[in-house]
Design goal:
The complex is a heterotrimer of chains A (about 625), B (about 170) and C (about 110). With about 170 residues, chain B is an all-alpha fold. Chain B has six helices and no strands. Helix content of chain B is about 70%, strand content about 0%. In chain C, α1 runs antiparallel to α2. Classes of the chains: A mainly alpha (about 625), B mainly alpha (about 170), C mainly alpha (about 110). Chains in contact: A-B, A-C, B-C.
Chain lengths: ~625, ~170, ~110
């Protein structure tokens, strides 16, 4: 099997799995779904591992899709370290999550069980296509398919109106991003008359930078939409309506990281388009802080994790925005570990508490769900960035890279944002863990004696917990010394440029200072929420509480600007165009015919003498005609 | 002499016609029509149509009018009662009828008749010549007309049956 | 020349045609004005007769026998039509007393 065949196989497995499972009419036995669903993803993982260990690479064209003059779109897959890296994350973490979902999705829902795994496999396929594609067009194809799969999965329980609305919201915002992507691709094509990465990147520095800036900004729109950064972020919290495995896979580990991948893949463009590049960093930094503040006031455990995701992806954008590409991707990997872990552990809790998601109704779960609680703690500490967990190494590397460029004002500014965000992250994570697992059980608890999850749901969680604990040690740049495997991997073959950061002493001090302060805030949350020793800040500044609860009024703003306008336009169209003109024309034609017929029917008086009169009148007319004829 | 006959016959015909349309009782209308028939037959004679003259008297005045009289006898005398329907009918009728008359009159002005070839008038309109025409050149219409009469007779019998009669 | 010879004196064809026209008009007026169905049938006969007169007059003027033959056919058809018409009338009369043809207006609309 050569590389080109293996690369195609990575895509074929999940596609085949989806097709097989979509045949509900075949009445598959439940066991087939349980094996094929995750199995397809694991098979792709195995193939990806093969390629990884063989250091395979290449740009393989399988067939030509469109050939029209200059516009030549082949179906080609680009296998390099960046795409293998992404495939490993997608199939590895994805495999764990889909396995977990076998237990999470209650088998009582008869046909929808297979439907769920069909959608999951479609999603994995789309995401793999996105990262493996070797040209802009198939990137967009994968991009759009991922958005579609997200729509299916968020709205999976389609009987719930809130789920359907959330799915729609996610899809619409993703489409806005799609438009940006497509326009950006157009700009690239117009400038370089090529669609494959290889052709475009080779021709790059030749042209003027203004068109590249434009393309970079447009592509950024797509990245912002897919990764839920400001201002296209409002769909992500609502997307928690989907089942927890969906939240884990799509909204933590993979889909939302597509934006980061995009900037990384397009780094030749962003290296030239400096303004767009700076915008990436600014967007990331602002979103990171913004989302962290909102996470403080959330009461639904999944929403805390959603805003946390938004915030962490902000970190990734920040990193690739200042040129620290490998740091950003390392954080992507580590975030995939601990966020998927957190979501799945949360899923265990939700399952045990009979679908209760409000943290205020938890309390004291540590004693009753020990394994889940400890796994959750590992994930939380990783999120806060406490040594020795992987989150520490990845987050601090980013902050260190930003801190280490004192002459770059942008880098310094975003470091400040990142620093404050880290502290707030400590606080809200602590609040989340203490409220759910420590203290006394809440009186409003739905379940008195919750059970731990079954093995199929526990084992993936534990695996991820282990990975989160030891994973950091592949790249300990944050400490200023030690292995840097990710950097090496991603630099080799010039896949992604890296900013080499010489860890100086000041950076390391800043790193540990950050960690200690964040940890203090983590513990401080205990004092506030469990011991009730200090007043919660919400009592001190109630207006801020309201602002955060309403998520800075973004939803209201968008509603007023866009939704109302569209509604107004639609209503106006209905009242002034549709009803009078179109309805009028169509119905009017009918009414005209009817009126005509009615008026003609008045001649049918039924009176014989009238008819004879008409005869005579006709004879008169004929006579006149004859006379005129003869006379002329 | 012929002219005098013509005018007398014409006057009778017109008088009969007016009588047809003005008498209230149908039986008087029928009798006026009989007068018209007779007058017309005299006119036919003037026009060298001997066979038509006879046919008119026998068939029309003799058979058809008698048929009408029988029907009146069957249905009983009816009187027309003026009801207010179709008020415009009279006025419109007058209008169109006058128009029609004017048209016909206009058509008759400046008419150039074709001059006939000098044929022998001694056999014109005689029973023989009509017979020759009917049985040679116009045999087909003749036969069809007789079938038509047969059909009319059958139809009339069928239509005027009483209900329940299966004969 | 519109005259022909009849027993020594000259008669003008146009007079006959005018007379026929008058009779035809009288018949038309009768059909339009009268409301007794029987009288209407009678007036129709009057119209037919007027047409016959026209035919025969032309036949004499043009000395073509076809006019008379046509008039003969016309007479036959008129007889047949009168027969059938009266049969229908009798049938209607059996079910109700029709004094006014305006009552027979079920085909209204």
């Amino acid at each position: 099997m050569n590389t080109s065949q293996l690369a195609l196989l990575i895509l074929i497995f999940p596609a085949a799995g989806a097709i097989l499972l979509s045949g509900r009419g075949w009445r598959l036995p439940r066991i087939v779904t349980k094996i094929v669903g995750p199995g397809a993803v694991w098979a792709s993982f195995v193939v990806t591992l093969t390629l990884f260990f063989n250091s395979a690479s290449g740009d393989f064209t399988y067939w030509t899709w469109i050939q029209s003059g200059d516009f030549n779109v082949p179906f080609n897959l680009l296998v390099d370290n960046l795409s293998i890296f992404m495939c490993l994350v997608i199939t590895g973490v994805g495999g764990l999550i889909v396995t977990y979902a076998v237990g999470y999705m209650a088998p009582e829902d008869d046909p929808s069980y297979a439907r769920f795994f069909t959608y999951m496999d479609i999603f994995v396929f789309s995401m793999l296509l996105l990262v493996l594609s070797g040209n802009f067009i198939f990137l967009i194809v994968g991009w759009a398919l991922v958005g579609l799969s997200s729509y299916f999965l968020i709205g999976f329980w389609y009987h719930r109106r809130s789920a359907v609305l959330a799915a729609r919201k996610a899809f619409v915002m993703n489409v806005i991003g799609d438009v940006g992507m497509i326009l950006g691709t157009f700009v690239v094509f117009v400038s370089y008359h090529a669609t494959t990465y290889r052709a475009v990147f080779k021709a790059l520095p030749a042209n003027d930078t203004s068109s590249l800036e434009l393309a970079a900004f447009l592509l950024l729109v797509g990245a912002v939409a897919k990764s839920a950064q400001i201002p296209l972020h409002t769909w992500l919290p609502d997307a928690m309506e989907g089942p927890t495995p969906v939240s884990a896979l799509i909204h933590a580990a993979t889909m939302v990281t597509a934006g980061v991948y995009l900037v990384g893949r397009m780094h030749p463009i962003y290296d030239v388009a400096v303004y767009a590049h700076a915008a990436v960093a600014i967007v990331g930094a602002v979103t990171a802080l913004f989302a962290a503040t909102i996470a403080i006031v959330q009461t639904d455990i999944k929403r805390v994790l959603a805003y946390s995701t938004m915030s962490q992806i902000g970190y990734m954008f920040l990193a690739v925005g200042i040129g620290a590409y490998s740091a950003g991707f390392f954080h992507l990997l580590s975030h995939a570990f601990f966020k998927a872990l957190l979501f799945m552990a949360a899923g265990n809790v939700i399952h045990a508490m009979h679908d209760e998601q409000d943290m205020r109704k938890y309390g004291g779960l540590l004693k009753q769900l020990p394994r889940t609680s400890w796994s959750f703690l590992i994930g939380s500490l990783s999120l806060v960035g406490v040594i020795p967990f992987v989150g520490f190494f990845s987050k601090e590397q980013i902050l260190g890279a930003a801190f280490s460029k004192p002459d770059d004002s942008l880098a310094l500014a975003v470091w400040v944002f990142g620093f404050i965000t880290a502290l707030i992250t400590g606080f809200y994570t602590g609040r989340m863990w203490w409220m759910s697992f420590a203290g006394r059980p809440s009186p409003e608890r739905a379940v008195e004696h919750p059970h731990e999850a079954p093995p199929v749901m526990l084992i993936p969680v534990v695996i991820l917990a282990v990975l989160a604990t030891i994973g950091g040690f592949i790249q300990t740049r944050a400490l200023g010394f030690g292995p840097h495997l990710v950097d090496d991997f991603l630099t080799v073959k010039a896949a992604v440029g890296t900013q080499s950061w010489e860890g100086g002493a000041s950076e390391v001090i800043a790193t540990f200072a950050t960690m200690l302060l964040a940890a203090l805030l983590f513990l401080g949350a205990y004092r506030i929420y469990i011991q009730h020793a200090w007043k919660p800040w919400s009592a001190i500044v109630p207006w801020a509480q309201r602002l955060l609860e309403r998520k800075y009024y973004f939803d209201e703003l968008y509603d007023a600007i866009f939704i109302r306008t569209m509604d107004g336009l639609a209503l106006g169209g209905l009242r002034y165009v549709e009803e009078p003109l179109i309805d009028g024309a169509v119905v009017g034609a009918g009414e005209l015919a009817e009126a005509g017929a009615h008026s003609l029917s008045l001649t049918q008086t039924g009176y014989f003498r009238n008819y004879v009169l008409v005869f005579v009148a006709g004879a008169v007319v004929v006579g006149i005609l004859v006379l005129v004829r003869v006379g002329s | 002499m012929a002219i005098a006959i013509f005018f007398v016959a014409a006057a009778l015909a017109v008088a009969g016609g007016i009588g047809v349309i003005t008498f209230r009782q149908p039986i008087r209308s029928v009798l006026s029509l009989v007068v018209v028939m007779i007058a017309l037959s005299i006119l036919f004679l003037l026009l060298s149509a001997q066979f038509i003259f006879v046919a008119q008297v026998i068939v029309y005045a003799g058979a058809v009018m008698v048929l009408f009289l029988f029907v009146i006898a069957l249905l009983g005398p009816a009187k027309e009662i003026a009801k207010g329907r179709l008020r415009f009918q009279t006025w419109l009728s007058a209008l169109f009828v006058l128009a029609l008359f004017g048209l016909i009159w206009a058509m008759l002005q400046g008419v150039q008749y074709r001059q006939p070839e000098q044929t022998d008038l001694s056999t014109f309109g005689t029973v023989q010549s009509i017979g020759i025409g009917l049985f040679t050149k116009y045999l087909y219409p003749f036969e069809l007309t007789s079938i038509l009469l047969l059909v009319a007779a059958i139809g009339a019998i069928y239509l005027s049956r009483r209900e329940g009669d299966d004969r | 020349m519109s005259t022909f010879d009849a027993g020594g004196s000259q008669l003008d064809t146009s007079w006959f045609l005018l007379l026929a026209a008058v009779l035809f008009i009288l018949g038309t007026i009768g059909v339009l004005i009268r409301r007794n169905p029987l009288v209407i049938l009678i007036c129709i006969e009057l119209m037919l007769n007027a047409a016959n007169l026209t035919l025969v007059a032309f036949s004499r003027q043009l000395q073509n026998l076809e006019g008379q033959l046509f008039a003969l056919m016309s007479m036959t058809v008129a007889a047949a039509e009168a027969v059938v018409g009266l049969a229908i009338l009798v049938d209607i009369f059996r079910h109700r007393d029709v004094e006014d043809v305006d009552d027979l207006s079920e085909l209204k609309g």
